[in-house]
Design a protein that fits this description.
The protein is about 65% helix and about 0% strand. It is mainly α. The chain has one domain.
């Protein structure tokens, strides 16, 4: 038995890097499949499926059904209204690249939405894992630590999204590729990538902030790290382009529906069940959410204090030694995305999913080399993934914990 294990380990180590990453990714997807099928086996009837759904049916619930609606019928020209005259939940909240890509492949292959949407997510997830390995090798300079970063990436608490009908898998692939291009300073390739990425998931504004900070840091450090005028102009213009792409989808929604605030009002409809219908005030949602979740009868602003402590902890974490080792660019991205979430997102059960773009931090978690630590982290991540799927993916009656 020991000889067989050693032989298997030798064969694994002899594989090219992409073969090892693919093997890790495949093993992680098998683990996620087992967890998902175990939950599906006890799943009762729900708004999307009957009891005990098949894997593919179960993988297309929640937002997967919204993407299906977009793929089949497109976007409404007339916004739906609630009984009290507010804009209700509708397809404009879901960007077009993922559902239209799946729809195109459905036409070519004649396969069904559940199959094609899941396959697209699985393939995009593999692409993300491959590029993530190259990114981690670039910033950490250690292939073994980079590979363990990939292991954590593949078994992370929300990594089941790599095999569900959500746009996150495709977006993650595009994002990690974009970060890799910035680290390599191959800026020109960012233009088409940003154009697609910004219409896959809301990301243009966060990436624009990231590029703006990148320009500032490179300008300040230009004596030790030359920053030619050509690159200054190029990156600055790409940052502006990213900001414009971040505003394009709301503009399209406004033009098609005739309502300039169609997109933001649509997004606000999802948080109305918590705090009612309100206008979007930048940097207010987290405080509104914290006050709702941590309502204190004493009058003490518990929610606001918790948010401030989270902001301070987040800021300090970026200066930890393992995080600093990731390099300036990845830290700037994590900071930029954190600012973006703080500005516009209302915290609820989807928070776990929306933290997915902070995946570069896995490179910091992966750095300790103790075997006990690494095995423990994998087990903790798989346990957390199980908990996330049970809490957020499984449907229990009138479920208020959407993924």
């Amino acid at each position: 038995m020991i000889t067989r294990r050693r032989a298997a380990l030798v064969r694994y180590r002899m594989l090219p890097w992409w073969g090892r990453v693919t093997l890790v990714y495949a093993a992680a997807r098998i683990v996620s499949t087992v967890i998902i099928m175990a939950i599906a086996a006890v799943q009762g009837p729900n708004p999307w499926t009957g009891a005990h759904p098949s894997y593919f049916d179960f993988a297309t619930i929640w937002d997967g059904h919204w993407y299906y609606i977009v793929a089949m019928t497109g976007y409404p020209e007339q916004l739906p209204l609630t009984v009290d005259g507010h804009i209700g939940e509708n397809a404009w909240a879901f960007m077009p690249v993922y559902p239209f890509l799946v729809r195109g492949l459905m036409i070519v292959t004649t396969l069904s939405w559940p199959v094609v949407s899941v396959v697209v997510s699985v393939v995009a997830g593999l692409g993300a894992a491959l590029v993530f390995f190259k990114l981690m090798v670039r910033v950490l300079g250690d292939s073994q630590t980079a590979m363990f970063s990939v292991v954590l990436f593949c078994v992370a608490p929300v990594s089941a999204l790599f095999q569900l009908s959500y746009a996150e898998s495709l977006y993650t692939f595009l994002l990690v590729l974009g970060l890799y291009l910035v680290v390599q300073r191959r800026y020109g390739w960012l233009i088409p990538l940003i154009a697609v990425m910004a219409l896959t998931r809301p990301s243009g504004l966060a990436f624009a902030l990231f590029l703006g900070l990148h320009v500032i840091v490179r300008f300040v450090t230009r004596r030790t790290d030359p920053f030619p005028w050509g690159e200054r102009i190029t990156v600055s213009l790409i940052a502006v382009f990213s900001a414009a792409m971040g505003l394009l989808w709301p503009a399209i929604a406004g033009v098609v529906t005739g309502d300039p605030t169609a997109y933001t009002d649509t997004e606000l409809a999802w948080r109305s069940v918590y705090i009612g219908y309100q206008h979007l005030v930048p940097f207010a949602p987290w405080f509104q959410g914290a006050n709702w979740w941590l309502n204190s009868q004493s009058g003490f602003p518990t929610g606001g204090v918790v948010v401030l402590l989270l902001i301070i902890a987040f800021g300090l974490s970026l200066f930890l030694r393992p995080v600093r080792r990731l390099g300036t660019e990845l830290r700037l991205w994590v900071l930029s995305y954190g600012v973006y979430l703080l500005a516009v997102f209302f915290p609820q059960s989807s928070t776990f999913r929306l933290l997915m773009p902070m995946f570069p931090l896995l490179g910091a978690v992966a750095q300790p080399k103790s075997l006990v630590y690494r095995v423990s982290m994998v087990l903790v991540f798989i346990a957390a993934q199980t908990g996330w799927l049970l809490l957020c993916w499984g449907v229990d009656g009138a479920d208020w914990t959407p993924p």
